[in-house]
Design goal:
single chain; alpha/beta; Rossmann fold; N-(1-d-carboxylethyl)-l-norvaline Dehydrogenase, domain 2; 8-stranded mixed sheet; 8 strands; 47% helix; globular; binds nicotinamide-adenine-dinucleotide
Length: 312
């Protein structure tokens, strides 16, 4: 199979990520289907799509006409028949291995022999998921970050049974859609972005628990310090620019002092136990008002688009 043979893309799971991912394909001419289990899912999906498209139009990324076309081009369905002639299926259903198992086993009997199947799982091993598909050589990880239609990164993870051809086609496909794909040469839980994100979160919550700083000041440290550098270079470029020797010396001194908690994140466990699930319930590390979710998302999307504008 080559990239030219990919015409129809089915995104499975009409939630936050499925709705986001589905918006990327119509403007590149792909027949785009968003499949979900319940018609009710499309109420949320359409809301996510409308909001995201509005931000793109407001920020000059699309004209109102282009945006209207994109929205009209996404076919919403609960009919499994949509998988029969799909060339690419991107699974974005909930992060439960049992649900994913059931999904893959069921659609395996629908999809074409040469269709490519991928998972947007945040952390589950691609090798573990590949046990549920009939052609593991055409199965791999494609992990997008939220909001997927704006964040350029897509992590392409090669499972031990994934063919190189499958990874190459997906790399070429996403590069041609102005994404910034990265290759994971082998399967690893959490892939690159979540392993890095959770290493930082482990240390951040350790610092709060140890009474060193409040969440607000740790967020400010990243936002006005490290985060700004990370928008233009990664950790390795930062080392090169700062000088390898000093980083080597600091690593020697600091590593024994860093958190190496293996079991759980106690702060997160406590918040969940108390029912404080973040912006959705009005309280997490911060307290939120009713309109905050909408405003925070808009602000985030606008800032990301600005950074990307300078990048281009
Ligand atoms: N939310 C994020 O920030 C984020 C980021 C990156 C990756 N992911 C991953 O993407 C996947 C989806 O996450 P989400 O946040 O969009 O979840 P979500 O709960 O918002 O949406 C999942 C959707 O899938 C539907 N669904 C359930 N079973 C299904 C089935 N068998 N077939 C089709 N649809 C089904 C649900 O009804 C729901 O609409 C997960 O694996 C998650 O870990 C999430």
């Amino acid at each position: 199979m080559s990239i030219k043979e990919i015409r129809k893309v089915v995104i499975a799971g009409g939630g936050l990520m499925g709705a986001g991912i589905s918006q990327m394909f119509p403007q590149y001419g792909y027949d785009t289907v968003l499949y979900s289990v319940s018609e009710m899912d499309f109420v949320k999906a359409c809301h996510v799509i409308d909001k995201s498209q509005q931000v793109l139009v407001e920020n000059g990324r699309l004209t109102a006409e282009e945006s209207k076309k994109i929205k009209e081009s996404i076919c919403l369905t609960t009919d499994k028949e949509c998988f029969r002639d799909a060339d690419l299926v991107i699974e974005a259903i909930p992060e439960h291995i049992e649900m994913k198992k059931e999904f893959y086993e069921e659609i395996s009997s629908f999809v074409k022999e040469d269709a490519i199947l991928t998972s947007n799982t945040s952390a589950i091993s691609i090798d573990d998921l590949s046990a549920f598909v009939s052609h593991p050589e055409r199965f791999c990880g494609t992990h997008f970050l939220n909001p997927p239609h704006i964040i350029p990164l897509v992590e392409i993870t090669k499972g031990s049974r994934t063919s190189q051809e499958t990874c190459d086609i997906l790399y070429e496909l996403f590069a041609s859609m102005d994404k910034k794909p990265v290759r994971l040469k082998k399967d690893v839980k959490g892939f690159l972005s979540n392993r890095l994100q959770f290493a930082l979160l482990r240390e951040a919550t350790y610092l709060v628990e140890s009474g060193v700083a409040d969440p607000e000041d740790i967020d400010r440290t990243i936002r006005y310090g490290n985060g700004l550098r990370y928008t233009c270079s990664g950790p390795f470029k930062i080392v090169d620019l700062g000088g390898v020797e000093v980083f080597r010396d600091v690593a020697r001194y600091l590593y024994p002092d860093l958190s190496d908690e293996k079991k759980e994140n106690r702060l997160l466990e406590d918040l969940v136990r108390e029912g404080n699930l973040g912006i959705a319930t009005g309280k997490g590390f911060y307290t939120y008002g009713e309109s905050d979710l909408e405003n925070e998302e808009k602000k985030r999307d606008r800032m990301i688009l600005k950074v990307l504008e300078d990048e281009e």
